Every structure is written in C-alpha cells, then in structure tokens.
C-alpha cells in the first residue's frame, strides 16, 4: 500500500490523488493538517528525503515566518518542531512506497514509470 501525505486543499495533492484514482492504484491518504506528522515520522523523512526540499519555501506558511524562525529551520530539531506545529510548511505530497522508498512532490513521469504497467 502506498502512503501519500499532504493536505487535501493543495492543488498538487489533489492532482496526485486524482491521478492515483484514475489509474486504480490503492493508497492511503494522510491529511497532515488534521493529523500532523510525528517527530519519529519526520526524522524518517529527513533520513530518506532531501532536507532542503522538505520545507516548502514557496508556501504562504513559510513566507509568514519571522526571519528568526526561517533561520531556525536550518536546525533539524527546530525544523521538526515547526513542521509539527505548522504542517502546511511541508512540501507536498510526500510519498511512501514501503521500506526506505520515498518520493517528494509531484512527478507524473516518474510515477507513471514506477507504478503503471507498460503501455498505460
């Protein structure tokens, strides 16, 4: 089962979920606005995903941070605390395919190659 993390009103997440539904691929969606990721989960993401990409620096949430808070994002533990309290700052969607297999963001070409049998 594929786990997809994000917020449902995000255009990119909506595109990803519609694509999955269109292709009949089973997944579990985790709305991290309702259920913020745990410290343990975020530590895992930092282990397998590029730390500089996990923070969505184009988001409204990021732009609303003070300069001091933005600088604190360079420290992983502080970044995790901010990500738990303001989960919409996390890049979306976060994909977990099992084990140590993760993907960050929307990449239709990569997902097509990875998830669809040839010819689809």
What does this structure look like?
This protein has a single domain (2-115), classed as Glutaredoxin (3-Layer(aba) Sandwich), CATH 3.40.30.10. The chain has a 4-stranded mixed beta sheet, with helices on one face. α2 crosses α6. The chain has helices at residues 11-22, 39-48, 51-54, 60-64, 67-72, 76-85, 108-115; strands at residues 2-6, 27-31, 94-98, 101-104. The two termini are 20 Å apart. The model has no long low-confidence stretch (mean pLDDT 93). β1, α1 and β2 (27-31) form a beta-alpha-beta unit. It has 7 helices and 4 strands. 19% of the residues are buried. The protein has 120 residues and is α+β, with helices and mostly antiparallel strands. 46% of the residues lie in helices and 16% in strands.
Provide a concise account of the structure shown.
The chain is α+β, with helices and mostly antiparallel strands and 120 residues long.
